Amino acid sequence: MGLTRDFFIKLSENQTLNSAAKRYGLALGANKVVAGVDIPSTIKAIRVLNDKGITATVDNLGEFVFSKEEATKAKDEIIAMIEAINESGVKAHMSVKLTQIGLDVDESFCYDNIHEIVEKAQQCGNMHINLDTEDYKHTIQTFEILDRLKGEYKNVGTVIQAYLYRATEDIDKYQDVRLRLVKGAYKEPAEIAYQTKEDIDENYIKLIEQRLLNAKAFTSIATHDHNIINHVKQFIEQHHLDKNQMEFQMLYGFRTELQQQIANEGYHFCVYVPFGQDWYGYFMRRLAERPQNLQLVTKSIFTPAVNQKIAVGAGIAAVIGLAAAARKNR
Ligand SMILES: Cc1cc2nc3c(=O)[nH]c(=O)nc-3n(C[C@H](O)[C@H](O)[C@H](O)COP(=O)(O)OP(=O)(O)OC[C@H]3O[C@@H](n4cnc5c(N)ncnc54)[C@H](O)[C@@H]3O)c2cc1C
């Protein structure tokens, strides 16, 4: 399965396929995990979630930002979404990856961009801005930028990756900051991160307990892992913790029945809602993550318009071939 994973990671990193896919709207079944390509369709999708008692954290998809122009465009799109959330009254906040707004171009330019975003969000009903964490180098830079912002703003927080050895200290340091806790999505070396699923899961549980017992701010537990979720629920009951100080999070389109069940049980539930034309890389990474996610790929969306374009077609044809093979092998 390593080959399939590497294959989808390669597709996700292919700039030609990424830019070609942008022209076709959501193809391939990506509409199951990406809420929309524009603001109105995304607000509509958030309303559907809100009607089910679920809130949203919204991610403006964007890849390959190497210039100030691209970073400024992304920043403007994020601000437009903040305004749309505020004006429409849907229950949602934003998640932002700092690389998308210029972290690799110039750190102080990126700081100005995120400062503007957090300021705008504060004006729009004190909306929360979550700084997503990425690979280790960018995660450290993200923490440094958070340290500067948190003196001035309360509506900003970040993500702690349980695979990092340093996570325990970070949880302690950020007791009064709103945090999302995740297992961690990147490939990091053994010098800085746990490598096996068992070690990562064990540390994840330890960190969640540490956080829930000591936090002075809101906590999001972001996982699709029902064993972890059940453990957290039991822990909350045993320690008589306040359910209103935490929420569970999952990605849009994944385990939707479980999402609804948890929300119906009286827990706060928030869905990570990606939107935008830059859906291709995000979708390929979801396919890389779990072989079973190939079920998302839909043959019928293989439209003639897309098919005609060799560039996108090459990637799509390969994906559909793999999806068919995966179905056969199940
Ligand atoms: C809302 C959200 C925000 C995130 N933000 C970040 C971030 O900022 N930085 C970062 O590094 N990472 C982030 N991640 C990714 C995270 O770090 C993990 O890589 C990712 O969530 C996979 O781990 P998991 O805990 O969901 O469970 P896994 O370890 O992938 O799965 C554990 C078990 O759960 C079950 N399971 C998992 N998925 C499914 C499914 N779709 N259907 C049925 N059963 C399933 C299976 O039994 C599986 O064996 C985020 C994840 C979420 C959900």
UniProtKB/TrEMBL annotation:
Residue numbers binding substrate: 97, 285-286
In its UniProt record, which GO terms are filed under biological process? L-proline catabolic process to L-glutamate
Q: Which cofactor does it need?
A: FAD
Q: Which Pfam families match?
A: Pro_dh (PF01619)
Q: Which UniProt keywords apply?
A: FAD, Flavoprotein, Nucleotide-binding, Oxidoreductase, Proline metabolism
Q: What is its EC number?
A: 1.5.5.2
Report TM segments: none
Question: Which GO terms fall under molecular function for this chain's record?
Answer: nucleotide binding; proline dehydrogenase activity
Coiled-coil positions are none
All residue ranges annotated as the Proline dehydrogenase domain in the record: 43-294
Q: Which residues bind FAD?
A: 161, 183-185, 197, 223-224
Query: Pathway listed for it?
Result: Amino-acid degradation; L-proline degradation into L-glutamate; L-glutamate from L-proline: step 1/2
Q: What is the UniProt remark on how the cofactor binds and its stoichiometry?
A: Binds 1 FAD per subunit.
Q: What is this enzyme's catalytic activity, as reactions?
A: L-proline + a quinone = (S)-1-pyrroline-5-carboxylate + a quinol + H(+)
Matching entries from PANTHER family are given as: PROLINE DEHYDROGENASE 1, MITOCHONDRIAL, PROLINE OXIDASE
State what protein this is by name: proline dehydrogenase
Organism name: Macrococcus lamae
Per the UniProt record, the lineage of the source organism begins with: Bacteria, Bacillati, Bacillota, Bacilli, Bacillales
